[in-house]
UniProtKB/TrEMBL annotation:
Keyword Manganese carried by entry: no
Classification via SMART domains: HTH_XRE (SM00530)
Protein name: Helix-turn-helix transcriptional regulator
Region of interest: Disordered: 45-70
Domain HTH cro/C1-type, residue spans: 38-92
Length: 112
């Protein structure tokens, strides 16, 4: 029989806690990094949540949940919100990748 390997469970963070105080042993999730990038871009533009939501065609509640990393939006939703922020999907993906990239240690990860 196969060995069962436990998967680490993320602790539930109350709404009033800082955005993403993930313990160092847990890597941030893609949706959290996407939300951080979207929120940063929106703030840099000086937009309110409702402004970006209206331009992208999503509800302010859904956009808020995207920014907080609570939703796994479809590619269509990401394209709509990115477009409303004058970003391309390439810009968004690159910014998210940079946030998720570990600090360069010179180590190489090999997958068999």
């Amino acid at each position: 029989m196969a060995e069962i390997i436990p998967f680490p469970v993320r602790p539930v963070v109350p709404e009033t806690a800082p955005a993403h105080p993930a313990p160092p042993e847990l890597a941030p999730l893609w949706r959290e990094a996407v939300g951080d990038v979207l929120r940063t871009a929106r703030h840099e533009r000086g937009d309110r949540l409702s402004d970006t939501a209206r331009r992208s065609g999503v509800s302010p509640q859904y956009l808020s949940e995207m920014e907080r990393g609570l939703k796994d939006p479809s590619s269509e939703m990401l394209a709509a919100v990115a477009g409303a922020l004058d970003l391309t999907l390439h810009d968004l993906t690159r910014a998210v990748s940079e946030r998720l990239a570990p600090a360069s240690t010179g180590a190489v990860l090999r997958v068999a």
